[in-house]
Specification:
By secondary structure, the protein is α+β, with helices and mostly antiparallel strands. It has a single domain (70-270), classed as Muramoyl-pentapeptide Carboxypeptidase, domain 2 (2-Layer Sandwich), CATH 3.30.1380.10. 35% of the residues lie in helices and 10% in strands. The chain contains seven helices and eight strands, in the order αβββαβαβαβαβααβ. It has helices at 3-33, 122-137, 151-165, 206-214, 229-232, 246-255, 258-266; strands at residues 77-79, 103-105, 119-121, 143-146, 186-190, 220-222, 240-243, 268-270. The strands form three sheets. The chain has a four-stranded antiparallel β-sheet. The chain has a two-stranded parallel sheet with strand order 1-8. The radius of gyration is 48 Å and the shape is rod-shaped.
């Protein structure tokens, strides 16, 4: 085989090898040509779903220590001074010119008193008559030491005690306008066991115990009980009872709030 033939064959093999290499590179080039450019990728926008706002539950009602929901609790309201639930204390005063128009004489009803006369509102006086009679039937003596006092009378009484005890008079006597006696529904009791005096020793008598058990049946409640000074502003006065009506007296006894607590919750402010 000549030189020319040998060169021809080598050239043919080279061409054949080149063709094979081209064929083998086609898939690689195809893949490179169709590769995705990362920079060209864009996130698919999704619709924004608005968060659902749920309605808030109403705030729970505040419950006071006595178990009464605040929204349901009765509040003192303005009213007439003849209302049996009127609130008269150190912070709430009666007008100087207020006087009940239905006062009656207690001696005229057969109620024992100290002095010449004592007055009380008609309804309270009628119930007091029955209370005194029931106590007497049980062997307990009750005498009224004091009943209705006008604004002027209370001013004189308070001034007299201040002249004796100074500021200490506030513990047992109310300034004019702030006394329950001006309502014509409050009485101070006494009897022979305490020398017909108004004193705390009355609270240790059998008569005082009888009142504790039965006074509410006739619409009377002790206004200033033992241990209640921080609430009422006055020391223990076992002789001082106020007429509020039989229904209110029963409710006060059942609630265990005492007169002051009951009137602060359901009473009537003096606007007369």
């Amino acid at each position: 085989m000549g030189l020319t033939e040998r060169v021809r064959r080598l050239r043919h093999r080279a061409e054949l090898l080149a063709a094979i290499l081209v064929l083998l590179s086609i898939p690689v080039l195809w893949s490179l040509f169709h590769q995705t450019d990362p920079a060209a990728v864009r996130p698919v926008a999704r619709p924004v779903t608005q968060a659902r706002v749920l309605p808030q539950a109403p705030a729970a009602a505040q419950t006071p220590l006595d178990g009464t929901v605040e929204a349901d609790r009765e509040k003192p309201r303005a009213g007439g001074c003849d209302d049996p639930k009127i609130l008269v204390d150190r912070a709430h005063a009666l007008p100087a010119d207020y006087a009940p128009d239905d006062l009656v004489s207690l001696p005229g009803l057969g109620v024992p008193i100290l002095g010449q006369d004592a007055l009380l509102r008609r309804e309270a006086a009628g119930n007091l008559e029955r209370l005194v009679a029931s106590a007497a039937a049980a062997g307990e003596e009750l005498t009224v030491a004091s009943a209705y006092r006008s604004y002027t009378d209370q001013r004189a009484s308070y001034a007299r005690l201040v002249s004796i005890y100074g500021k200490g008079a506030d513990k047992t006597s109310a300034p004019p306008g702030h006394s329950q006696h001006q309502l014509g529904t409050a009485v101070d009791f006494t009897n022979a066991a305490v020398g017909y005096q108004v004193r705390r020793s009355f609270g240790r008598t059998g008569t005082a115990q009888w009142l504790t058990l039965h006074a509410h049946e006739y619409g009377f409640v002790m206004a200033y009980p033992l241990g209640g000074e921080t609430k009422t502003g006055y020391g223990w006065e076992p002789w001082h009872y106020r007429y509020v009506g039989t229904d209110n007296a029963r409710r006060i006894r059942e609630s265990k709030l005492g007169l002051q607590g009951f009137l602060l919750r359901e009473g009537v402010l003096p606007r007369c």
